[in-house]
Amino acid sequence: MGLKTSIVTPSKNYVYLRYLLCGLSKQTVKPSEIVLVIKDCSTKVVERICSRYSLRCKIIEQKKGFFTRALNVGKKEASGDVIIFTDDDAIPPKRWIERYIKLYKTYPSNIAGISSRDIYIDINKWKILCTSDDTLHVRLYRWLIRTWYEQPHPLLKKYRLGVYLTKKLNIAYGPYLPYKTCYSLPFRGVNMSFRRELIEDIWFPEHPLLKRALGNEQYFGLRLVLKNYDLIYTPTNPVLHIIHESLSRSADNSYVKYEFNIMKKLYKKLLDSKAVQTT
């Protein structure tokens, strides 16, 4: 019997949602369900977009909270064996779901999550754009400097080649990214998946001062690692990610630092609780 998949997507203003739904409608293996958690947009309009692509979507209107509240609401509603999270501005290739299913059948049951990369695309020109992950100087830095000077937290040593938390609880990207398979905390929330049965008591961080909760996917992955599960990154199942102004994190560096500082406190709280349990 094949694995059933749930797609969970928060959507605000649904500007790019049609691109995602068009991609999902063309999948070689159709999702068992699509859970859309919408905010600041009309349910009826979203229903029309779904029907345009002959997709049955479970549409939930978000009344309160920010981005991670939407993720948690969607996760709670999802019933598939595998839950795949993505953004409403992603365009999945036609074998995206099929590849995730094959990966979960290949890896042992202790692999709780698998993530892959996103590739930026300018839809005005339909042109693929390079990201910092692809630049030579970033790749050299990850191999020659980060490996030695940004050591992983002791609980995350096996994740040093992928996404990990450093001893100072900063998020670091190791030298295998984005081109090689490795142990890794979720790479980016736009393209990550989990076995539902293993995340039933795992939730994304909600905090009154966190709007985007940058680093929430690594928090979610850390909670699984602390339960002795593993996570994998693979470069073989990318999505296209529509580039637009709000996608850039550099627009307000003070806001980014503010959110990361809150997230670091949440990481520390998780790790401290683990330390208490083992003493």
Task: Write structural notes for this entry.
- With 279 residues, the protein is an alpha/beta fold.
- The protein has a single domain (5-278), classed as Alpha-Beta Complex (Spore Coat Polysaccharide Biosynthesis Protein SpsA, Chain A).
- 33% of the residues lie in helices and 21% in strands.
- The protein has helices spanning 17-25, 43-52, 67-77, 96-106, 136-149, 216-225, 253-278; strands spanning 5-12, 33-39, 57-61, 82-85, 90-91, 111-115, 118-122, 127-128, 163-165, 171-173, 182-183, 192-195, 230-233, 239-242.
- Strands 3-2-1-4-12-6-13-11 form an 8-stranded mixed beta sheet, sandwiched between helices. The protein has a 4-stranded mixed beta sheet with strand order 5-14-7-8.
- The mean pLDDT is 94.
Quick summary:
The protein has 279 residues and is an alpha/beta fold. The chain has 7 helices and 14 strands. The protein has one domain: Alpha-Beta Complex (Spore Coat Polysaccharide Biosynthesis Protein SpsA, Chain A), CATH 3.90.550.
List the helices and strands and how they pair.
Elements (H helix, E strand, L loop, with lengths): L4 E8 L4 H9 L7 E7 L3 H10 L4 E5 L5 H11 L4 E4 L4 E2 L4 H11 L4 E5 L2 E5 L4 E2 L7 H14 L13 E3 L5 E3 L8 E2 L8 E4 L20 H10 L4 E4 L5 E4 L10 H26 L1
Helix pairs in contact: 6-7
